[in-house]
Amino acid sequence: MVPVLALLLGLMLDCSTACSLDRGTFWRLRWQRIETLGFLGELKTTPVVWCLRDRNDFRCPWKNASITRGKQREEATCCHSKMLGQVFHLFATEASRSAWPERALGQLLTSLLSGLHALEDTAEQSQACPPTFALAIRTCFLGISSYLEGKRYSPCSWEIVRAEMQVALSALPVPEERSPKKRRSAMQESPLRSQHSQGLKPQRTGRVQSSKR
Question: Per the UniProt record, which residue ranges are transmembrane (predicted)?
Answer without folding.
Answer: none
